[in-house]
Design brief:
Largest interface: A-B, 106 and 104 residues
Structural class of chain A: mainly beta
Helix content of chain A: under 10%
Number of helices of chain A: 3
Distance between the termini of chain B: 22 Å
Distance between the termini of chain A: 50 Å
Helix content of chain B: 10-25%
Radius of gyration of chain A: 26 Å
Number of helices of chain B: 6
Number of strands of chain B: 5
Shape of chain A: elongated
Shape of chain B: globular
Number of strands of chain A: 28
Strand content of chain B: 5-15%
Strand order of the largest sheet of chain B: 3-5-4
Strand order of the largest sheet of chain A: 1-4-3-2
Largest sheet of chain B: 3 strands, antiparallel
Low-confidence stretches of chain B: 1-37
Strand content of chain A: 35-45%
Oligomer: heterodimer
Structural class of chain B: alpha+beta
Order of helices and strands of chain B: HHHHEEHEHEE
């Protein structure tokens, strides 16, 4: 595998920096992250425990990111055998991060007093500190918990009618803003479709909706990586896409102000907030096979190396999804292997009438092309409509065949699919 | 967004459609009955084209299927009888890489067994979406996952309800068609993470 060194030393605009990152990523090569000098163990009382600087995760190490982008690495000290993800730092409170394991995850709290790892039960994500040293986090993306030193853990159920809740952020010691996953009537999916920011008053236990984003069965709108600025103002990334489209979604930076949520600007690509402080923003961008950090300030944006803050690992396996199948199991056995027999093809459709389909078939004048309906090609065409089928006997590379067809007949590019033309009579 | 065929490195025995069309070989195929065979003649295609290499992990998924929401991720389609609701007929879309495995192997297998009644709604494939609460792309965004019988097997459920649209309990007939070795077709079943209606063509993701 070829390796190239990324050098983005000069300040760039955010768009330019991300464009460079995305362009390099498109090359498809993986560029190794530079190894950080280890400053110590991520233990209680360590420089890291002060929570003064943002912290990012690089493998099994925690890296502090100074205001000028300087880095110092600390080794994760209380390994439970999982992978590290989602880290939060707050001056005066400490550092907290998740150790993702199969089943219940670990949550490590590093403070000036000590370091402890707890196992709250369930899938733990998105830890966030208050200025008073309380720690909030999401459990199974379904509820929040708040740990206060010397007090029982408080559970915060999601708002009534909501599907989930995650990414809590303290705006005051008694107020949490979190992302709430809301239901869309008639839409059932395990993926995300609609998020809004809600605030939760820890003294009254009440939730209040702060944003009014909407979505439907196809258009989705989700909120990611809310971060609190020093002023208490929340910045967040909104991602909007079309489920059935093959166009990439759009990314937007939003701010939650007293007057409501306002879009700050479009973002040049997939990127997530890692921290906000002073007049600078720290971004996570997946590039060249790694999560990388970009520091955006008044003088531009620059790459400051690898690290993940509130983004999910992509180069390591989620332990809950790790393949448990035995080696070789699941592969087709030799006696079942049969040669491809050619009952595949391309359809152009659908058409409401046979005549419409026949006209297209005649216009194309393709040898072998003909009108089919459900009874003849039941996997390819639904009942009561018609399509033009072009069988591909002996063609092993169906994808290339479809590309060739679309190149030759671009006017039908959006109406063509690969299908099975296997017969309809059992 | 599209992915060049060369970068995906899986184009053995390339035969161009254009060459086929010009050669007129389709006529012979039609006349010889390759199309519209009766299902009594139908056989699994467990060649490497029918059950192709299954990627492992995010990087391998991108290498094989391309980036999330790319143009090939919904280039294949198959008719299913219950999409958003029972007898709400429609198509499930998925990546062209799986055209034989889903369209020819899995769907035709169920039909050849006369067990369409084992299917139930919702039945979905490609969806350009993020995983719930995270920054990771759903396997559906690559066209590498199929959901079926979702209504009776929602996320969070740790067991499979085998009752189909015809109210008959087919046990694990549908999962067995998708997952593992014969009669399965090498999909990874999401029941391991309490997502029983989910079948994806990638492991460690």
């Amino acid at each position: 595998m070829s390796k190239r060194v990324t050098r983005i030393a000069l300040p760039l605009t955010l768009a330019a920096a991300v464009a460079v990152a995305v362009a390099l990523s498109a090359v498809g090569t993986s560029v190794a992250c530079a190894r950080d000098a280890v400053a110590g163990v991520a233990g209680g009382g360590s420089p890291l425990s002060k929570g003064k600087d943002p912290v990012a995760l690089v493998g099994q190490t925690l890296v502090t990111i100074g205001p000028d982008g300087t880095r110092a690495a600390y080794v994760h000290g209380e390994a439970l055998g999982g992978i590290l993800r989602h880290v939060s730092a707050r001056p005066g409170s400490g550092v907290a991060y998740v150790e993702d394991r199969r089943g219940s995850d670990g949550l490590t709290l590093v403070t000036s007093k000590d370091s402890q790892t707890v196992v709250p039960g369930g899938e733990i994500t998105h830890p966030a500190w208050s200025s008073e040293g309380d720690l909030a986090y999401a459990v199974d993306l379904e509820r929040l918990e708040v740990r206060t030193p010397g007090a029982p853990v408080r559970t915060i159920d999601r708002p009534e009618g909501a599907v989930g809740v995650f990414s809590p952020v303290f705006t005051t010691p008694e107020t949490i803003v979190a992302v709430v996953q809301e239901a869309i009537p008639g839409v059932t999916t395990h993926d995300d479709t609609l998020n809004n920011l809600w605030s939760h008053d820890l003294t009254t236990g009440e939730w209040a909706r702060l944003t009014a984003f909407s979505a439907d069965a196809h258009r989705w709108s989700v909120v990611r990586t809310p971060v609190a600025q020093d002023t208490g103002q929340i910045l967040f990334v909104r991602e909007v896409g079309q489920a059935i489209s093959s166009e990439p979604p759009s990314y937007e930076l939003w701010a939650l102000r007293e007057t409501g949520a306002e879009k700050v600007r479009e973002l040049p690509g997939e990127m997530f907030l890692a921290a906000a402080g002073g007049d600078g923003l720290l971004w996570n961008v997946f590039s060249e096979g790694e999560w990388r950090l970009f520091l955006e300030g008044p003088e531009g944006t620059r790459s400051i190396g690898c690290g993940a803050v509130m983004v999910d690992p992509r180069t390591s396996v989620d332990p809950d999804h790790e393949d448990q199948e035995e080696a070789g199991k699941g592969l087709p056995s030799a006696e079942e292997v049969l040669p491809a027999d050619g009952e595949m093809g391309i359809v152009i459709g659908d058409f409401e009438t046979r005549a419409e389909a026949a006209e297209v078939a005649a216009t194309l004048g393709l040898v072998g092309g003909r009108v089919v309906e459900h009874e003849e090609a039941p996997s390819a065409v639904m009942p009561d409509v018609f399509a033009v089928a072009i069988p591909l006997p002996g063609v092993l590379d169906l994808e290339q065949a479809l590309d060739d067809f679309r190149d030759r007949y671009p006017e039908y590019a959006t109406k063509t699919w690969l299908v099975s033309l296997a017969g309809g009579q059992a | 967004m599209s992915v060049s065929s060369e970068s995906m490195g899986r184009r053995p025995g390339l035969k161009r459609l254009a060459a086929l069309l010009l050669a007129g070989s389709l006529v012979g195929a039609m006349q010889s009955g390759v199309v519209a065979n009766h299902l009594r003649d139908w056989k699994h295609d467990h060649s490497k084209a029918g059950v192709p290499y299954r990627p492992k992990g995010y990087s391998d998924l991108v290498r094989v299927f391309g980036k999330a929401c790319n143009g090939k991720a919904n280039d294949a389609r198959t008719y299913f009888p219950h999409v958003d609701a029972r007898w709400d007929r429609g198509y499930v879309y998925y990546h062209s890489y799986l055209a034989r495995n889903v369209g020819y192997n899995i769907r035709t297998h169920v039909r050849a067994d006369h067990r369409d009644g084992a299917l139930d709604y919702g039945e979905w494939g490609y969806a350009c979406r993020k995983m719930r609460g995270g920054t990771s792309w759903s396997a559906h965004a690559f066209g590498a996952a199929i959901d079926t019988n979702t209504k009776r097997n929602p996320q969070g459920q740790s067991v499979w309800n085998g009752k189909g649209a015809d109210k008959t309990n087919y046990g694990k007939y549908i999962p067995d068609i998708f997952k593992g070795n014969y009669p399965g077709h090498h999909f990874r079943w999401g029941i391991g993470w309490n997502d029983p209606h989910h079948f994806q063509y990638v492991t460690n993701y």
